[in-house]
C-alpha cells in the first residue's frame, strides 16, 4: 500500500505526456553514400555525427563509413569501442562522454550513432540520454543479440558495483537500422548467444517460434541467419519482443514475460563476466527455470524435456558451475527488489505460455539445481 497524500495541501500538479515514436528499419545497403539512411533524424545542412563503432566493425568498415559521411558533407568523428561485458563500465561511459563533448554536437539535429552489439548500443544510448540531458541517437546492431533484443527497445545502461545495468536509463532511439549482413562475420558462439534470447522468447510466449527453432534452428546457425527460415525466425522474434515492449516501454508493469531467463542469469553473468556471455547465461536460466516450473507443478515433464532437448540440439549451454542454490536464491532476492517487493518470476505452464509466480521456495531451488546437475552429468 502506498502512502496517501493529503490533497488539501496540493497547490500545483504537473501532468505531461510525451509520445514515443521510432521506426525499426531494414536496410542492407547502409554504406552507399546515395542512401541517406544513416543520416536519419538529422539536419540536412552543416551537420555533424558522433559515431561509436564496435572495434571489429570499425576495422572492417572505417573507410566506408568515413567516405559515407564525407560524401554527404557531414563532419564525422568515428570512435572505435572494444566491446565485451567487461567493458560496459562507467569509466568507458565517461571516456565516450568526453570524446563527444570535445567534438561536440548540437542538441537536436545531429544524432549520435551506435554501430555494434548490445554493449555498444547500451553504453552509447546511455551517453546520448545524459548528454545535455538527452540528445537523439540511432542504433545499428551488428550482433544477433543486438538485432533481436538489445537494439530494438529503449533501455540503456552500464554495469556498476558488480551489478548488471545498475546505472542506466530509458531512452527511445530516433531509429533502429537492421542489416542482417553484419551477422555473416559473427562467430558461431555469438550467434548462439543471440539465439539464447530467441529461445527464451519462444518458450515463454510463442509456440510457433519454438517449432521453427526445432525444425530449422540448426540450419540458421549454420547460415548465420542468412537463409529464408533465418529471416522468418528473426522477424517472429522482433515482432514478439515488440509485442511485449510496446505497451510497457517504461516498465510501469513489473510483470514482464521477457524477463523470463533473467531472474537467475544476472548473478551468473556477473560471477563469470570474462567467460559467460549474456545469452549463454539466459539459456542456462531458461533450462533452470523450466525444471523449476516442473517442480512448481506448472510444466509437464515431457514439455520440460522438449525445451532441454532444443537447448542441447542448438548447442546452447544449460549448466554452469555457479548454479548453486545460495547464489540463485541471492539473485531471486535481488530481482525481488528490482520487481518492487514481489518475485514476479515468469514461468511457463506450457511451451509458449507465461504466468507470474510469487511463491518460489528455497527448497525448490535446491531441488531444481540437483535435477539439472544430474541431467548434466548424464548428457554432458
Ligand atoms: N538494452 C537492452 O534491452 C538489452 C537487451 C539484451 C541484451 N542487452 C545487453 O547486450 C549486451 C550483450 O550484447 P552482445 O552479445 O551483442 O555483446 P557485445 O556487444 O559485447 O558483442 C559481442 C562481440 O561481438 C563482436 N562483434 C560485434 N559485431 C560483430 C560482427 N558483425 N561480426 C563479428 N564480431 C562482431 C564484438 O566485437 C564483441 O566481441 C549485454 O551487456 C546485455 O546486457 C541489452
What's the helix and strand layout?
Elements: E1 23-26, E2 47-54, H1 55-71, E3 74-81, H2 90-102, E4 112-116, H3 118-130, E5 137-141, H4 144-150, E6 155-160, E7 163-170, E8 175-178, H5 188-205, H6 207-223, H7 228-245, H8 265-271, H9 278-295, H10 301-314, H11 325-338, E9 345-347, E10 355-357, H12 362-379
Nicotinamide-adenine-dinucleotide binds next to helix 1, helix 3, helix 4 and helix 5.
Could you please describe the fold and organization of this structure?
- There is one protein chain.
- The protein is α/β, with parallel strands linked by helices.
- The chain has two domains: 23-184, Rossmann fold (3-Layer(aba) Sandwich), CATH 3.40.50.1970; 188-222 and 254-379, Dehydroquinate synthase-like, alpha domain.
- It has helices at residues 55-71, 90-102, 118-130, 144-150, 188-205, 207-223, 228-245, 265-271, 278-295, 301-314, 325-338, 362-379, and strands spanning 23-26, 47-54, 74-81, 112-116, 137-141, 155-160, 163-170, 175-178, 345-347, 355-357.
- Helix 5 (188-205) packs across helix 7 (228-245), helix 8 packs across helix 11 (325-338) and helix 9 (278-295) runs antiparallel to helix 10.
- The model has no long low-confidence stretch (mean pLDDT 96).
- Nicotinamide-adenine-dinucleotide binds next to helix 1, helix 3, helix 4 and helix 5.
Amino acid at each position: 500500500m502506498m502512502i496517501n497524500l493529503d490533497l488539501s495541501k496540493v497547490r500545483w500538479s504537473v501532468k505531461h505526456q510525451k509520445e514515443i515514436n521510432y521506426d525499426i528499419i531494414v536496410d542492407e545497403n547502409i554504406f552507399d553514400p546515395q542512401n541517406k539512411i544513416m543520416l536519419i533524424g538529422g539536419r540536412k545542412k552543416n551537420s555533424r555525427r558522433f559515431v561509436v563503432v564496435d572495434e571489429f566493425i570499425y576495422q572492417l568498415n572505417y573507410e566506408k563509413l568515413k567516405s559515407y559521411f564525407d560524401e554527404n558533407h557531414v563532419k564525422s568523428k568515428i570512435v572505435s569501442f572494444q566491446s565485451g561485458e567487461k567493458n560496459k563500465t562507467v569509466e568507458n561511459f565517461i571516456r565516450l562522454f568526453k570524446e563527444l563533448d570535445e567534438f561536440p554536437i548540437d542538441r537536436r539535429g545531429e544524432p549520435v550513432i551506435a554501430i555494434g552489439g548490445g554493449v555498444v548500443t547500451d553504453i552509447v544510448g546511455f551517453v546520448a540520454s545524459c548528454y545535455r540531458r538527452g540528445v537523439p541517437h540511432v542504433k545499428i546492431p551488428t550482433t544477433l543479440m543486438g538485432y533481436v533484443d538489445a537494439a530494438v527497445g529503449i533501455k540503456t545502461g552500464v554495469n556498476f558495483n558488480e551489478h548488471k545495468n545498475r546505472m542506466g536509463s530509458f531512452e527511445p532511439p530516433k531509429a533502429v537500422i537492421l542489416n542482417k549482413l553484419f551477422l555473416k562475420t559473427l562467430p558461431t558462439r555469438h550467434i548462439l548467444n543471440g539465439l539464447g534470447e530467441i529461445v527464451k522468447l519462444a518458450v515463454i510466449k510463442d509456440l510457433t517460434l519454438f517449432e521453427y527453432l526445432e525444425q530449422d534452428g540448426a540450419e540458421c546457425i549454420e547460415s548465420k541467419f542468412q537463409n529464408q527460415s533465418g529471416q522468418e525466425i528473426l522477424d517472429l522474434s522482433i515482432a514478439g519482443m515488440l509485442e511485449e515492449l510496446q505497451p510497457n516501454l517504461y516498465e510501469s508493469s513489473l510483470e514482464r514475460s521477457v524477463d523470463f531467463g533473467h531472474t537467475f542469469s544476472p548473478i551468473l553473468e556477473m560471477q563469470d563476466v570474462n567467460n559467460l556471455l549474456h545469452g549463454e547465461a539466459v539459456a542456462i536460466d531458461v533450462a533452470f527455470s523450466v525444471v523449476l516450473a516442473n517442480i512448481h507443478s506448472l510444466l509437464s515433464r515431457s514439455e520440460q524435456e522438449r525445451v532441454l532437448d532444443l537447448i542441447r540440439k542448438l548447442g546452447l549451454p544449460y549448466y554452469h558451475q555457479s548454479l548453486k542454490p545460495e547464489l540463485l536464491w541471492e539473485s531471486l532476492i535481488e530481482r525481488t527488489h528490482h520487481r518492487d517487493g514481489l518475485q514476479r518470476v515468469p514461468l511457463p505452464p506450457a511451451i509458449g505460455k507465461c504466468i507470474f509466480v510469487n511463491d518460489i521456495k528455497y527448497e525448490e531451488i535446491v531441488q531444481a539445481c540437483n535435477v539439472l546437475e544430474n541431467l548434466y552429468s548424464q548428457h554432458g
